[in-house]
Amino acid sequence: MEVLVYVLVGVVGLAIGSFLNVVIWRVPRDRSVVRPRSSCPGCDAEIAPRDNVPVLSWLLLKGRCRHCGARIPVRYPLVELATALAFVALTWGLGFRPDLPAYLYLAAVSIALAMIDLDVHRLPDKIVLPSYVVAVVALSAAALTTSGIGSLLRAAAAGAILFIAYFALAMAYPKGMGFGDVKLAGLLGLYLGWVGWGAVVIGAFSAFLLGGLFSIGLILARRAGRKSGIPFGPWMLAGAWLGLTVGETLWRAYLDLVL
Question: TM spans, by residue (predicted)?
Fold first, then answer.
């Protein structure tokens, strides 16, 4: 029975991953994610339901459009697989806790925002701002269920602190920090604060550490210069997930070492 539950969670993840592919393509182009139905960018032919099954259809079509033979990027099935794996991993790691829906939503949003930022160097308000509402509602429901009002207040405080900190950075160095990053920082702060202050510290620090190491690597490989624009959103998200998963453990280990 337990295996069946994880299989069902994975199937849901695949379906949501398929929808995320639509979001990743359409939202930056200010197009509706509901209508019209998905079509091939090459020949504009509408994609039939049999060709829209997550991962499986891509494999059966050998990564090409049935009508014109245009190549379908491998990113599509990878996004679907990544979402499914994230959903299964979170469900396995957390169990069916009251805050599980909040984490599942963040996982889906993280994948969409990371891919969009890599594509167009932008974190759309259409995704980030509604995510505040979802996070507040989901975490508030979890707090009421588990008597975690203290965690909810800490989440609000952490969200405000990270928002203000990133806002100050954006004002001090506007070429290196966009306001999309500022808005995302507040959202991630809510989740990190829900877990604990150790998660906040590790999550915030890891974003700059990972982003800095990646930038240095690009410069050393001569694939970017010191003035190159490198999207920071993916590293904010990666750092946040590091903070959410092992932040408290790493922070306690650090304090034990120092104190």
Answer: 6-27, 76-96, 127-145, 151-169, 200-220, 232-254
